[in-house]
Amino acid sequence: xxxxxxxxxxxxxxxxxxxxxxxxxxxxxxxxxxxxxxxxxxxxxxxxxxxxxxxxxxxxxxxxxxxxxxxxxxxxxxxxxxxxxxxxxxxxxxxxxxxxxxxxxxxxxxxxxxxxxxxxxxxxxxxxxxxxxxxxxxxxxxxxxxxxxxxxxxxxxxxxxxxxxxxxxxxxxxxxxxxxxxxxxxxxxxxxxxxxxxxxxxxxxxxxxxxxxxxxxxxxxxxxxxxxxxxxxxxxxxxxxxxxxxxxxxxxxxxxxxxxxxxxxxxxxxxxxxxxxxxxxxxxxxxxxxxxxxxxxxxxxxxxxxxxxxxxxxxxxxxxxxxxxxxxxxxxxxxxxxxxxxxxxxxxxxxxxxxxxxxxxxxxxxxxxxxxxxxxxxxxxxxxxxxxxxxxxxxxxxxxxxxxxx
Length: 406
Fold this sequence. Notes:
42% of the residues lie in helices and 29% in strands. It has 406 residues and is α+β, with helices and mostly antiparallel strands.
C-alpha cells in the first residue's frame, strides 16, 4: 500500500500548513483509508491537554455515518476516568505504547468495558498507539503521570481483522497525521489558554494580533469591582490550603457570576477582581449591560450565602465581600514594558469604581453603585449621598442596591 501511504501522507502534510479544522481532517483521513481499501470502521483520537481546566480532547470518526464527534474532558475527570481500565488509560499512564487485540477474545484485557462494547458492535480487530511529542510527561491533579502526545485507535469489522500490510500502513501514517493533530490542537490550546488567563474577549484580541505595546482603544463599559473582606485575617487564621480554597470559593462566587452574565474578568488583583461588561451599539446596549452587571453582583452574593452555609457545617469561618458598579470610558489594551506586557483596562473610571468599593464597609452596604450607573439601570436603589474619594476633586453620588432582590 505504498502508493496509498504516499498519497495520504502528502495530503496530511499539506493540511498541516493550512488553517484547517481537525474534525474535517480526521473525516478525510478515515475516508481516504476506506477508499484505498483499508476497512476501518472507527477511528478514535485523543490528546491530553496541558491546560488548567481541559484535561483531554478526543474525537471519534464513524465510517458508517462519516461523522466526527468531539468531546472535551475536564482535567479533574481525566485521572478518575482513566483509573478505570481502558486502552487509552493504559496508554496515557505509560503502561503500554501500543495495543493490538481482538475485542471478542482479548486475554489480559477482559476488564476493558470498551472491548465488550466493540464486540457487541461486531468489531473484530483493534489497534491503538501512543504517539509522543513535546515534553515527555506532565503530572495530573491526582499525582498520576500522563503521557504528553497523542492517542489513536483503529477498529475494523472485517472477519480476518487488519492484515500485516494494513497495520504497516497505519504505522507509516501516524507521524504525518499527528503533525496535523499537533498543529490543530496547539492552536486550540493557545486560544483556550489565552481565554483562561486573559478572558474570552481579551484572549481573542491578543490571538488575532492586538498584542503590541500601546495598542489600546477607548471603550464604553460597565465596570464591576469586588474585594474580599478580612483577607489578611483569613490568611493568618487558616492554613495555606484552606485559605486558597476560601479564595477560590470567593472567586467562584464573584468572577463566576460575571462570566455567566457575559462579562469579562480582566484582573484578579490580590483578593479583588476587576470586570467589565463592554457596551456595543445593538448587540450590548448600555441598559442591558448595567442590568447584567447588577444581576451578576446579586448572583455572587446568593452563591456566597450557599457556600457559607456549607462552611459553617465544616466549622470554617464565613467570608464576605463588597461590590461596586460604575459605567464609563476606559483605556483598554496593551501596556507595560518591552518584555512584559499586560492587557488591561485603566483610566479614571477604573480608579473610581475601586474607590467606591472601599465605601461598602463604611456605609454597611455590600453593593453600591455610582449615580451614572443608576441612571442607566432600571432597578430601584437607595440614595447614599455624596462622598469624597481619594484622588478625585469632585464628590461622587452613590446608591445602594438590595443584594437579595431578583
